[in-house]
Amino acid sequence: MTLRIGVIGTGAIGQDHIRRCSHALVGSTVVAVNDINQEQAAKVVQQQGIEAEVYASGHDLINAPEVDAILVTSWGPSHEEFVLSAISAGKPVFCEKPLAVTAEGCKKIVEAEMEHGKRLVQVGFMRPYDQGYRALKAVIDSDKIGEPLMIHAAHRNPTVGESYTTEMAIVDTLIHEINVLSWLLDDQYVSAQVIYPRKTSQAFAHLKDPQIVLLETAKGTRIDVEVFVNCQYGYDIQCEVVGERGIAKLPEPASVQLRSGAKLSTEILMDWKQRFIDAYDVELQAFIDGIKAGKITGPSSWDGYTAAVTADACVAAQRSGAIEPIRLPQRPAFYE
Amino acid sequence: MTLRIGVIGTGAIGQDHIRRCSHALVGSTVVAVNDINQEQAAKVVQQQGIEAEVYASGHDLINAPEVDAILVTSWGPSHEEFVLSAISAGKPVFCEKPLAVTAEGCKKIVEAEMEHGKRLVQVGFMRPYDQGYRALKAVIDSDKIGEPLMIHAAHRNPTVGESYTTEMAIVDTLIHEINVLSWLLDDQYVSAQVIYPRKTSQAFAHLKDPQIVLLETAKGTRIDVEVFVNCQYGYDIQCEVVGERGIAKLPEPASVQLRSGAKLSTEILMDWKQRFIDAYDVELQAFIDGIKAGKITGPSSWDGYTAAVTADACVAAQRSGAIEPIRLPQRPAFYE
Amino acid sequence: MTLRIGVIGTGAIGQDHIRRCSHALVGSTVVAVNDINQEQAAKVVQQQGIEAEVYASGHDLINAPEVDAILVTSWGPSHEEFVLSAISAGKPVFCEKPLAVTAEGCKKIVEAEMEHGKRLVQVGFMRPYDQGYRALKAVIDSDKIGEPLMIHAAHRNPTVGESYTTEMAIVDTLIHEINVLSWLLDDQYVSAQVIYPRKTSQAFAHLKDPQIVLLETAKGTRIDVEVFVNCQYGYDIQCEVVGERGIAKLPEPASVQLRSGAKLSTEILMDWKQRFIDAYDVELQAFIDGIKAGKITGPSSWDGYTAAVTADACVAAQRSGAIEPIRLPQRPAFYE
Amino acid sequence: MTLRIGVIGTGAIGQDHIRRCSHALVGSTVVAVNDINQEQAAKVVQQQGIEAEVYASGHDLINAPEVDAILVTSWGPSHEEFVLSAISAGKPVFCEKPLAVTAEGCKKIVEAEMEHGKRLVQVGFMRPYDQGYRALKAVIDSDKIGEPLMIHAAHRNPTVGESYTTEMAIVDTLIHEINVLSWLLDDQYVSAQVIYPRKTSQAFAHLKDPQIVLLETAKGTRIDVEVFVNCQYGYDIQCEVVGERGIAKLPEPASVQLRSGAKLSTEILMDWKQRFIDAYDVELQAFIDGIKAGKITGPSSWDGYTAAVTADACVAAQRSGAIEPIRLPQRPAFYE
C-alpha cells in the first residue's frame, strides 16, 4: 500500500518534503499540492517530476478522496485552520512547527483531536528522531547516570539576519530545545527565567544576543540553555544531562579528525540544515509507517500545545526579567 | 519504475538484502528467489511477506523475463557461474564478495563483462559507501593533507570462532581494507609482506593472531594494516592517512560521551554488523539507482579481480615471510 | 640567598607546605614552626628532618629575627590576627584561604597592608597557578575568541562527609571559582543568584546538592557554576569561556587513552588533591621568588576581600532565592 | 648537602642544564665549567650569574676535588673519553646522548663501570621521565591491557634543515623511541627493517623522508615507528601499545579546546623543545637525588650501549632493505 499524500505549502521546506515523500522514503507518493501561489505549486510539481494535482484550495486538497494524509508546510499562521480541517476530515496530518501561532490555537487542535478519539496529528519536531538524541535518551533510560538532575544545553548559530528578533530566540530557536528536552526527560516545565549576558558586538543593534534561558521541570530538574545566534564559529547544538551518578553528553556529529597546521581538529558544521538532515527523513518515514500501522507515535498536538505555552512563558520572562510560572495541565492519558 | 529483483541465495545476508529491497530502499521489489535449499527459499518469502516466485534453478531465475536485476548472495564458490550467467543474459548483477573464489575466476568475469560492452556487475564491497570513509576521501581529494604517503590501519574483532583460519585473516577480513584503501588512494598494490607479532593468548592454537600486513602501492604509498581478530575489546576499524602536510583519520562512530565511574568514555561497538549497517543500504540503493540511470558506478568486477590478486599475494606472503610482488595490469579505460 | 620561612599551623596543609619549602622548592628553608599543639609541631619538625625552632606563640615566630617570611596554615579563624601581625612586622606572609572568616576581617587586612605601603600578603588561591587555567587565560588574552560573554563552569566532587553543609558549597567549594574566574576575566562580580535543582539521592538529608550559582560581572559577563559535591563519578573541574567569536575550554588533565571492554576512555581523577597538585608548588615558588624580586604578584588581600564579599552575597542568595547585589568598591591602584 | 656539579660543554644544552642545576632544581649547584672554547665558558658563567670556576681541561674539571658529579654536554665524539675519565675518578656522570658515537665505545664504558663495581653513569634519555610515558607504563604494568603484542609509534617534526641526513632519522630521531620503547616493554630488540614510503615533496632532495622502522623484540612484540621529519603540521609524538585485551595510547599534551572558525580544535606543538621540557627537569633531579641516595636509577650505560647497537642495525637496514638481526647479550644483573 502506498500512502497518497497531499502537501499544503510549496515553499522551501514544502519542496524538501515533497522530494522526500516522492523519492527518498518508502511507501508514499505525493498526489496533490496546494500553495497560496498556485503557479509556484505547479512549477514545483513539474520540477520534481511528480504526478500531482494542483489544488486551488487547501481545504479541497484535504477533502480530496485520493488524498490519504496531509503535510502542512504553509505559512505559520495558516497551520491551525488546515490541521483542524484535516482532523474534521479524519485524515492524518503532519504539521511543521508551529502547530498554531498561539497556545490557544494549539489547545483547539488538541481538543478537536481528542474529540475525534484517535491521534491524527504529528508535529514537525525532528530532534527526537535524531540518532544522537535517541542514543542520549537510551543512556538516560538505561539508568547509567541515575536520575537526571540538570541539563546544560546550547543552541548556537553562526549568524542571523536583521529580521531576527529577540523574541525569535524563543519561538524559532529555543522551541526545539523546549520540545526535545521535555521528551528526553519525560517531564514538563513549571517555570522559566531569561538572563541577558553582555551582548555580542556581532549582533544587530536591536537583538539581545546571547540569552540564557533557565527552565525548571515538574520533577525539579533544572535546565540552562544558552541561545547564541551570532556565535560566528558554527551551528553547534550541545546537550549535557547531569544525573545522580554520571553525565551523558549528546554526540558531536562524526567528522574526520585532522592533524594540520599545528592543530588537531574536527569540523563544526556551519549550516544548520546539515545538522539534523537525517532526522527529517526519519520523522517523515515514522509518520508514514505510523499511519500504516494505525498508530501515530511522533510529537503530538499535546507536545505542540505545551511547547507553545512554555514559549509564551519564556517570552514573558524575556520581558519581565522575573521567574515566570508555566501552568500546564497534566498530560491526558490520550497522549501518553 | 520499480526495479524487479531476483535473489540467489536466501541465507542470512540474502534475507537481509531481500528485506532491504522490499521494505527499506526506494524503487525496487523482490520478485524471484532461489536457494540450493528450496524449502528455505519458500520460507523466507513467506516470513518477509513478499510476493516472489521461488525458482528451483538460479539460472532460470536469471533468465526469467520478469527479473530486471540479480543479487547473488549464495555460497561463495557458486558466485562465478551466476555472475557469468547474468552477464550472458545482459542483466545487472550485484554480487556479494567474493566475486569468485579465484583470481582467474574474477578475470573471466571481467573479460565477459568487457565483451558485453557495458558494466553490469557491482561487487558487494560496502565500505566505499560508508559516510566516514567518504568524508575521509573528500578530505584527501580536497588536498587538505597533500599527497598521501602512508596509511596506518587496523581491523579488529573481539573474537573469532574455531573455524577461523590464519588465511581467513586475509581473504575474509583484510579483503575489505584491500578494497577500500585502493579506492581511497585511487591506486593499486605492487607488493605485500606479512609480519607475525607475538601471538595473543586469547586465540585458538592454530590461528596466528594478530598479523600485520604491509602493502605498497604503485605510487609508492605504504600501508600497514593490523589485523587482530581476538582483540577482545571491540569491533574497531581504524584508518589514518598520512599526507605531505597533514593527517586525516577515519571518524570514530558517533557515541554518547559518558562521565561515570572515574572514566570519561564513549562506546566501542562489539558487533561488526552495526559498524557499516547504513552502508549496506547505501550500496544497494546505489545499485538500484545506477541501473535506472543506466550507469553502474560501485565497486566493479575489476575491483573484485584486483582484490583477489592482492589477497593471493598476501596469502603467499603469509607463507613465505618474504615481500611478495603483486602483478596487476593497468586498469582498463572500461573500468575508470 | 635562602628565604627563611616560619610556618604557623602544622596540620595537613601546613606539613605539606613545610615539605615543599624544605625539599621541593628552590631558595627557601623552614626555620621556625608554631602550632596550637606544640607537641605536634615538634613531631612534624622531627618527621620532616628539618632544623626548625618550635615557637610557643605565633606572634613570637612572626617577630623572630631569623624569620624572613611567614606561612599561615593554621585554623581559619586565626588567620586574620596572624596576617595583621605579619604586616605589623613588615614581613611577607602567605595565608591559606580564607584570608579572614569575615569580609570585614579581610578589609582590615587590606587597609593595614595599604597603610604599610607595599604588598606583603599572598592568599593561597592556587588555581591561577594551574597550567590549564593559565593556558585558558592566554587564549582569552590573545583575543582568539573575542570578548568573553559567558562562562559555563562546574565544580564536582565524588562525595562529601556529613559535616559538609549547604553553605560550604559556597565558602569552601565555589570560593575557588569566585577567585579564578574573576582573575580569568579581569573583572569583578555585581550580582549572585542560587538555584537548587532536584536534589541528588546520594547526598545527606541536610545538604542541598547540587546547586547552580549564577554570577554577573561588572562588564555584564554571565557565569553559571554547577556545584555538585556528591556527583559520584569523579573530581571534575570544568570551565568553558564563550566569547564573541569562539569558545575556549579548560583542558582535561592529560590521561592515557584506553580501548578496553567496549569503551574508549580516559581517566577522571577521584581525589581532588591530585587535580592541582602542581599548582601548589608553583604558587609557593612564586611567593618565594616574588619576595626575592621585591614584588609579590599572586592573589592579593584585595582578592581575598572581594572573594569574601562575593561569597557572602552567594550565601545570602542561597537563603533568599533572589538575585543579590554584590557591592564592591573599585580595585585600588595599589592592587593593580 | 648540596651536590657540586661540574659541566663539560657550555653550548645550548649545557647552558640549559647549568640553569637547571643552579636555579631550578633542588640540592645542586654548578661549581665548575669547561668548554673547548674557554671564553664561551667564562661568558656563560657570567651570564647565568653563578660562581663557577672555568677549567681549561675537562679532565682537570673531573678530577677537581670540589666537583662531586659531572655533566657531559660537549660535542658527541668527546663523550666517551669524559665519561671514562669520570668513571676512573669514581665520580657520578650524567652524559647527554649519545653515550659514545660507536657501540664499541659504549661497550668500553659499560665494562669500565662494571669493573668499578657500582653504577656511576646516567645517559640523557629523558622520555622515561615524561609524565605521559610514565602513565602509559603504569597502565601496561597494571595489566589493564594484558601482554603487549604490538606498538604503533610515530616521531614527527615539522621540518628539518639541509644538514639532516637519512641516517640521522635513526641516530638522532629514532634513538629516543629505541630507548623509551624498550624501557616501556622491559624488552630488547632482535631485528630491524626499514621501509621507505613515497617521499614527501617537502624534504630536501638528499633526504629519504618519511621512513618506517619495524622492530622486533625478544618476546616477539612488533613495533612500527613512522619517522617523518618534514610533516609540516607539528612536532607530534605518538605511541600506541596494543595488548591482548586492550590498547593504551600516550596522552596528547594537555591543551585548551577551542571552538572557532568551524573547527573544534586543540593545539599541536611546533617546537620540539616544549614537548618534553618538564622531563628534562625530572631526569636531572633524579640524577641529583640518585647520587644523594647512593643509587643511580635512570637510563644506564647499558641502555646507551644497546641503543647504539640497535641504531647500528637500523642504519644497516636502511642500506640493505633487508631484515637485519640485532645481536645483544643478556642484560647483566649489574644493570637490572
Give your account of this protein's structure.
4 copies of one chain form a homotetramer. Chain A has 336 residues and is an alpha/beta fold. The first copy, chain A, has 2 domains: 148 residues, 3-Layer(aba) Sandwich (Rossmann fold), CATH 3.40.50.720; 175 residues, Dihydrodipicolinate Reductase, domain 2, CATH 3.30.360. Chain A is 37% helix and 24% strand. In chain A, the strands form 3 sheets. In chain A, strands 12-11-7-10-9-8-15 form a 7-stranded mixed β-sheet. In chain A, helix 4 packs parallel to helix 5, helix 5 packs antiparallel against helix 10 and helix 7 crosses helix 10. The longest helix of chain A is centred in the C-terminal third of the chain and has 20 residues. Chain A starts with a strand and ends in an 11-residue tail after the last strand. The model of chain A has no long low-confidence stretch (mean pLDDT 97). Chains in contact: A-B, A-C, A-D, B-C, B-D, C-D. The interface between A and C is medium-sized, with 32 and 32 residues. Strand 12 of chain C pairs antiparallel with strand 13 of chain D, so a sheet runs across the interface. Chains A, B, C, D: GO terms for molecular function: inositol 2-dehydrogenase (NAD+) activity; nucleotide binding. Chains A, B, C, D: Involved in the oxidation of myo-inositol (MI) to 2-keto-myo-inositol (2KMI or 2-inosose). Chains A, B, C, D: It catalyses: myo-inositol + NAD(+) = scyllo-inosose + NADH + H(+). Chains A, B, C, D: Belongs to the Gfo/Idh/MocA family.
